[in-house]
Amino acid sequence: MAGKYTPRSNSRTILFLFLIAFSLILFLFLFLFSVSPLRNSAPSHSLPHFQLRNVETSFVTSLEHFLANANSHSPTPPDQQNDIGKLDDAVYHSEMDRLFSDPYYPLSLPLRVYVYDMPPKFTYDLLWLFKNTYADTSNLTSNGSPVHRLITQHSIDYWLWADLIAPQSDRLLSSVVRVHRQHQADLFYVPFFTTISFFLMDKQPCKALYREALKWITDQPAWKRSGGRDHILPVHHPWSFKSVRRYVKNAIWLLPDMDSTGNWYKPGQVFLEKDLILPYVPNVDLCDARCLSETNPKRDTLLFFRGRLKRNAGGKIRSKLVVELREADGVIIEEGTAGEGGKEAAQIGMRKSRFCLSPAGDTPSSARLFDAIVSGCIPVIISDELELPFEGILDYRKIALFVSSDDAVKPGWLLKYLKDMRPAHIKEMQQNLAKYSRHFLYSSPAQPLGPEDLVWKMMAGKVVNIKLHTRRSQRVVQGSRNGCTCECKVSNITNTASVIS
């Protein structure tokens, strides 16, 4: 009878409702499992690419935020270690404590870095000078490049300093920690903006400021104790600090390359065992995961180059390459500078190309290499004297082709070399570029495995040698052979045959 209640019908209803509820729970579980990061917990090295979120990579935008919050940056508390002897004793006790308490000392991370609290005329005043004059696009270098964009691509001093002095709660790097007592430090960071002062100050006031900075730095007890060997000095543009840097040649220089021709650095001033190569700040935007998936199948230009076609010193190879390649099918060679229009043209060209030409300029390096990497365009490096950033960590053979200058200018050789490249090899290198891009993007906050992080991982390998030379200099007696004769300076000549496979 309709509507009549029976125990059997009630049990069927309960069973039906149970099955529906169970199905909903099972569906929800499977959905959550499918989106869980644990489901595809592949090792990070197998990930095809990465994406930046809530990170600022623009120097201008990051600087505006930095200066707007300048009062929140914690200054270095005064460390009253004005007596070199007392500082040396304090360092000894600190190092002995670490030796017996840390089984990995002195190779362990994080590195302990003391950041000097220099007078504002060496730091904040120069940053404000850049910000207040940035809109003046008429300020050009002798070759027509906008000065402020040139400063931007050498702004490694800003990115490192901004991260070091940020509140610890805002920092993401575990490779370095800031200490506020000099005797606790492995290294000392000198936050003087040498490139901004060189390009934005008149010649004589700039030289005067360099002399003041030199005196301030070399008067520090920690500098006198080590002769500057454990001090980090950012001189990323080859002209910066040039008039006085012979007096600080023992310090660790942060450089764009190591020109061995003598045009930029004097013999004995720079070498790999002492100094560190840092990448330029890219001039173009990152081609992220979505961009790469859209552009890689459509890269129909074989080889692309946009830049100055005539350069001095090692860059003379450019004019020879123009003669060889300019009319070739599938090749785009354009004259251009790094202005806003130039940035857009270079970015579009690189994202349409499989290979990007990266020849030497006035110096062995240029920002173009890093523009190509973040654009997903395989660099073709023709710069026989080039030294590369973080090469103790990164294997550039996986993302770039190295061609000797002699081979590159042989009629037809370079085009045949590129056209004979197997599609599978090209695809593999493009995938590797997607993984490597993160290592060349300066950002705020600084990211793990970004260039700021790799700086300190590379520095960790120098600490033992720095301590060796510091202690050796402290105990060498007068009249002894006080010059080290164990420098290893192997010539750096590109051998195309060794990298074809």
Automatic annotation (TrEMBL):
One of its GO terms (molecular function) is glycosyltransferase activity. It comes from Psophocarpus tetragonolobus. Residues 110-418 form the Exostosin GT47 domain. It is a single-pass type II membrane protein. Its main location: Golgi. The keyword Thylakoid does not apply. It is found in: Golgi apparatus membrane. Pfam families: Exostosin_GT47. Belongs to the glycosyltransferase 47 family. InterPro entries: Exostosin, Exostosin_GT47. It comes from the Eukaryota. This is Exostosin GT47 domain-containing protein.
